[in-house]
Amino acid sequence: MAIHNDYERSSEGAVRHWEFPYARLENVTPLPSEPFAVLSLLPGTQLTGVVLTIDAVNTIIVGDVTCSMVTLQNIRNVLTYAGNVEATWGPINIGDPIYYDRSATMPADCFLSTSPADNVAGANALFGFAVPGPLAANWDTDIASFPYGAALVASTQRLCVMQVGAGAH
């Protein structure tokens, strides 16, 4: 059997789907297509991914933790908190880091933000990076739509995120 050179390998790598019990997740009521973070002894170091399926009977999810997988997600443009209140906001640009935000103040349908710290100054785990995504009308990307959101204005934006996943740290 021959050992192939790097250029002969797949550019996408292996897809990683894994089972996790609800009890080990930051959000213990997960739904398909939502981001998730696995609990960790050290906040900010959690494994993150996207819920593919749920097994409510056995309280287990199958999550995608593939490095560089791109999904469309809701992202809050909060940068900092002052206690339980969002304090500053900014536009989201291509390549900006996106975090799994553990804040209790996040909107119900939003688990990601641009804030590296939650509302009690705990570290948020890096989920991925904002990237251009396809427009609904055609196969072009939304590059011209960046930045999303505005400075000094709180908003939730729907855009693509390239997740860090497993094995990228």
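(the above was protein one; protein two follows)
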Amino acid sequence: MVKNKIPLIGIIPLWDSAKDSFWMLPGYMDGITREGALPVMLPLTSDENMIADIVNRFDGFLLSGGQDVSPEFYNESIRGTCGEICEGRDKMEWLLTKYALAADKPILGICRGLQFLNVFFGGSLYQDIPTELDSKLRHSQKPPYNIPIHEVELTGFLQTMLGTSKIEVNSYHHQGIKELTKYLKPCGTSRDGLIEAVYMPDKSFVLAVQWHPEFALEWDSSQKIFEAFVQACKK
């Protein structure tokens, strides 16, 4: 009996500069495996031939959270409020995103993943929300990270997916979308106007959220996001 092919989903590795090591949050893996796909932590490489081969072999990609995207990618100098930058991640994600989009492979971005996609398409970021955006909302919480701290209003793609116009989310970031690229459409916004979710209407599945569903898999909204992503990777 021939079994259905299990989708193979590549996850961008998290980088620990102090330990000179790769690592991975279990929530990324668990969110994917619960929906019947096989997650694999990718190597951190900027070898274009290797990345092209990775994109050919895998069915979808998760752009994980992590260090700040280098402001050089959106033509700004690095300010003192900018956090740690991982040059290897910036280079790898740039190439991987280019090849994955060309092949129309599904992409799910989380936190940095949302910020990176916006920068990839020519948008810009707040290097530090607390010092650049006049907001009373708290966008960076302390553990535990499965406690919602603010509301997001949903529209379009994400509203349809989750079946609601508002959700409560967790939040753990100090950067965010400043100028949204014309290639992405907003589908989630917080009360202070910060864009919390985006998608690409002309691709099979490109969705990115600013909050962290991997920390709160017990939420219905979190698992629905992973479910939709994995279903897109099965097609």
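Reviewer note on protein two: The two ends are 21 Å apart (CA to CA).
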